[in-house]
Design brief:
The chain has 4 helices and 5 strands. With 151 residues, the protein is α+β, with helices and mostly antiparallel strands.
């Protein structure tokens, strides 16, 4: 039998930085280097929301990463103050459908609220139907559409 615990760390801690960069780099729909750029930008400013949540599975063979979530502050165009941004969520494929993602999402909400956030923002690609469905089921709604163009 295995158990899963959730640990909270600062994303800039050396002990988790490599692991976090590797996992962020594997996020679907993100361009190469996205995770490294996000973490570098977060390190340059004081971020009241920054947290890396690690879901660690303990089993007969030791410990392994079961999933995780990343919370950061994000100020959009024209916004003076950062809002809590649910930047990433992942669950190992063999553990999906067991409620771990929802547990991580609730912990992200609790941390955002504790940091003074009044709303939590989440970015989902328009082609990611599963993520859109899940986010809406968890109470998120479509707020606005940002468009971008590579330069």
């Amino acid at each position: 039998m295995t158990t899963v615990r959730i640990e909270t760390q600062a994303p800039g801690e050396e002990s988790c930085r490599d692991e976090l960069e590797r996992v962020l780099g594997a996020q679907p729909g993100r361009e190469p280097g996205w995770g490294s750029r996000v973490l570098a930008a977060a390190a340059l400013r004081e971020d009241p929301f920054a947290a890396f949540l690690r879901a660690v599975e303990t089993g007969p063979d030791g410990e392994s990463l079961a999933g995780g979530a990343l919370l950061l502050g994000l100020a959009g165009p024209g916004e003076a103050q950062a809002r809590p941004w649910f930047a990433a969520l992942w669950v190992r494929s063999d553990l999906r459908g067991r409620g771990l993602g929802r547990k991580l999402a609730r912990k992200v909400e609790d941390l955002a609220r504790a940091g003074g956030g009044e709303e939590l923002v989440l970015e989902v690609g328009p082609e990611d139907d599963t993520a859109l469905f899940t986010a809406e089921r968890w109470g998120f709604f479509r707020e606005r559409l940002w468009m971008s163009r590579s330069l």
